[in-house]
Design brief:
4-stranded mixed sheet, 19 strands, 484 residues, 3 domains, Arc Repressor Mutant, subunit A, alpha/beta, Rossmann fold, 19 helices, elongated
């Protein structure tokens, strides 16, 4: 049935007969009113409605029909058992090799979309060909397509126009992101994220933005954008320089780039590309993976709104440790840890205390979240991606130590260290990773991030004024501590 015929049927279905105009002895038939002798008298009288009333009732009728058509069959949850992070990692490991914490956090981020306000956001920052897009895309295959919005490059204006629907009363676009998973792939810059800052920080469930749009007839015009709901956002970019405002709103991740991971990834790639159909069949028939996909659908069906943490003192111990210097970003980092805890509880909601649409996270959920947080927290606390932190610990520090094995000079018991040049860092990087590090990337993106995090200081090079010497601050602190 085409849309025009469906509209006619809907309008007929919504008509109500005006019984006040039916007299005694008259009979109502579909084609009119008849008297006792069976003679036709007049058409059936209907209650008059305005076009707005008819249109509103048609929309409600269509919505209910669509809901009946797409309502999935209730999933039998008795087949599920409690799922630990280790078991989940093994299932995800069918297609994602190594990257244990990365794949767990990415999965939990996407699963958190099915909550009322416990969603969190991820930013994958790493060079090209490291798998930063592969991890979220591979995990997204476990979820229903209707829940995932994947976007390549998009300017803020294009994104809002494409994903929103125009509302005359708003004089702009309404973008409904409630319980959605947004994956931004290979973004060259953070301009779109800047527009989404209030949404990423969960300032309000409905946020009105104003953007400028250019048209041939009117030039620059202001448009209203109404963002509704909290999505789970995953942002992938090869840009390594992160604005602090975005860094505090996201968990910063980077794929592993060690030899073992690359070797296993190559093996998996050969296995897949040799016979794609056989590989897909093997993957789709895997019982654990099939059960995980059913589990995700069942979580969505449950419609969980609130997740309560039963023992918050364990979280307090991590962030309110007396030996720890508190930073403003800790107020947001603690939210990340809490969101991870709640996502673990959501994964095992059938084995948690429950009251209506509210479940209670227990100590197991907190312990699982703390295991992940203990691994990813060093770079999070510094506000840099794990890749930038790894370059510091695996490249800069070893290069600095090698250069200063023999002290050049000692004055008053203080050892004077030789600083590193950029070329020294680039050379060490090539020795470890077997690929060059562009000087412009080191100069414009990596060194500023190290310096902003307080990991290095720079001093003038007395030999070459055009270059600066780089000193790691943490190395000097550790050395002094060891001497004492």
């Amino acid at each position: 049935m085409n849309e025009e015929n469906a509209e006619k049927v809907n309008k007929k279905a919504l008509r109500r007969i005006d019984h006040s105009k039916i007299k005694d002895g008259e009979t109502i038939f579909l084609n009119g009113i008849y008297d006792e002798k069976g003679s036709y008298l007049r058409p059936v009288p209907y209650v008059e409605k305005t076009e707005e009333e008819i249109e509103k009732e048609i929309q409600e009728l269509n919505r209910s029909r669509r809901a009946e058509e797409i309502l999935p069959e209730k999933i039998d949850t008795s087949k599920f058992t409690p799922l630990s992070s280790k078991e989940l990692s093994e299932i995800l490991g069918l297609t994602i090799k190594r990257d244990e914490e990365n794949k767990l956090v990415t999965f939990l981020c996407q699963l958190s979309a099915f909550t009322e306000n416990s969603q969190f956001n991820i930013s994958f920052n790493a060079p090209s060909s490291t798998g930063k897009s592969y991890i979220p895309l591979e995990i997204a295959r476990l979820f229903s397509k209707e829940d995932v919005i994947k976007t390549g490059y998009a300017s803020p204006t294009a994104f809002f126009h494409d994903k929103g629907s125009y509302k005359e009363e708003l004089k702009g676009y309404e973008v409904d992101l409630e319980r959605k998973i947004l994956i931004f792939l290979d973004q060259p810059h953070n301009l779109l994220l800047q527009h989404l800052r209030p949404l990423l920080s969960h300032d309000d469930k409905e946020i009105l933005l104003k953007i400028t749009d250019k048209s041939q007839k009117y030039g620059l015009r202001t448009k209203n954008i109404l963002l509704k709901g909290y999505p789970s956002v995953i942002f992938c970019t090869a840009g390594l320089k992160i604005d602090e405002q975005e860094a505090t709103r996201m968990i910063l991740l980077s794929p592993e780039i060690n030899q073992e991971k690359i070797r296993e990834a190559i093996h998996e790639k050969i296995k897949k590309e040799s016979d794609i159909d056989v590989y897909k069949n093997w993957l789709e028939e895997n019982p654990e993976r099939k059960l995980l996909k059913e589990r995700i659908s069942a979580v969505k069906q449950e419609g969980i709104k609130e997740i309560i943490i039963k023992s918050p003192e364990k979280v307090e111990e991590v962030f309110l440790n007396k030996e720890r210097v508190l930073k403003p970003r800790d107020t947001r980092d603690v939210s990340r840890l809490i969101s991870l805890t709640k996502a673990f509880a959501l994964l095992n909601l059938w084995f948690r205390e429950r009251s209506g649409s509210t479940i209670i996270a227990n100590e197991d959920d907190i312990s699982e979240a703390l295991k992940i947080w203990s691994v990813i927290s060093p770079s999070q606390e510094l506000g840099i991606s794990p890749y930038i932190y790894e370059l510091f610990s695996e490249v800069l520090l070893p290069a600095f130590n090698e250069k200063n094995q023999i002290a050049d000079e000692e004055l008053n018991g203080v050892i004077k260290k030789d600083g590193l040049t950029r070329q020294g860092i680039i050379t060490k990087h090539y020795q470890i990773y077997g690929r060059p590090l562009p000087d412009w990337k080191l100069r414009q993106e990596i060194i500023p991030m190290w310096e902003a995090a307080g990991l290095i200081t720079q001093e003038d090079n007395p030999v070459d004024k055009r270059n600066k010497l780089i000193y790691p601050t943490t190395h000097l602190t550790i050395s002094e501590g060891e001497k004492k």
